[in-house]
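User: Sorry, what's this?
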Amino acid sequence: MSLWNARAAQWVKRQFSQSPFEPTRRVWPTGVRLAVMVVLFILVTGFAAGMRGVAGDNPVLSLLFGAAAVAIALTVYAAAVRFLEQRPASDLDTTVAGSGLRIGIPIGLGLFVATFALIALFGGYSTKGGVSVGGAVTLFGMMAGVAVVEELLFRGTVFRLVENLAGTRGALAISGLLFGAIHLVNPGATVWGSLAIAIEAGLMLGAAYAATRTLWLPIGLHFAWNFAQSGIFGITASGNEDMPGGLVHGVLSGPDVISGGGFGPDASIFAILVCAVPTVVFLSMAKRRGRLYTRRQLQSARTPAFS
């Protein structure tokens, strides 16, 4: 490894360090930090989308570019928090990454399988064609990048910083609505589908973050749901009709309220009902742990809401 590569590796490692350090500059107001972080992650999102476009349906490139998107997004977030807030990015503590993902991924898979089973029970799902392992691999890499980038933007940035301005409940509502609204840009988007995502995913992922104060659990939940939906069962995700095929080619039919229609299962009433359960559980955990903050509490503490 060259000297430059060694220094770059040390710099990246330092961004994830949880050791306190002496501030070297004044911390900007919350609103300014929020604006800067949002702009920064819009750029990261565009860069990740460009890499997905280059990878196309190629499984190897999708895995490589997905891993690159994950690494770049995590490093940008950790470095931005250290620079803008003059503190370690405690919600990206790598010592709890394994446990967060080990919990989040099985729960996310279970939630989607439960939703899928209800849709299938009512005759809303069938398959056609053969099996495509390459399609599943392609979507694995793609969904890893999507889950990480979106969680860093909507939970790590929007939820966390809006919470300092509006309290936990305000942050849940605002970040959830924005998370749903961003899906309106997808080709097969509907207003109902975006609202459903705001309720089932925006609230659940925000509640998971509030309860744990780590991004690893919502990242695991988000990735597992998306990959199960598109990568395994081959169903349209959030109106994204131009995605590669998954392991099987799934076909939705029947009333849109059951199957989600062209938007996919995210718009199914069953997705809302199934995801309501962990949302309530996570909010109860957050309340027991004293992690549901009011705006006044946060302003009095004058520190981000981590404990």
Notes: The longest strand covers residues 125-128. The beta strands are 125-128, 249-252. Residues 97-297 form one domain.
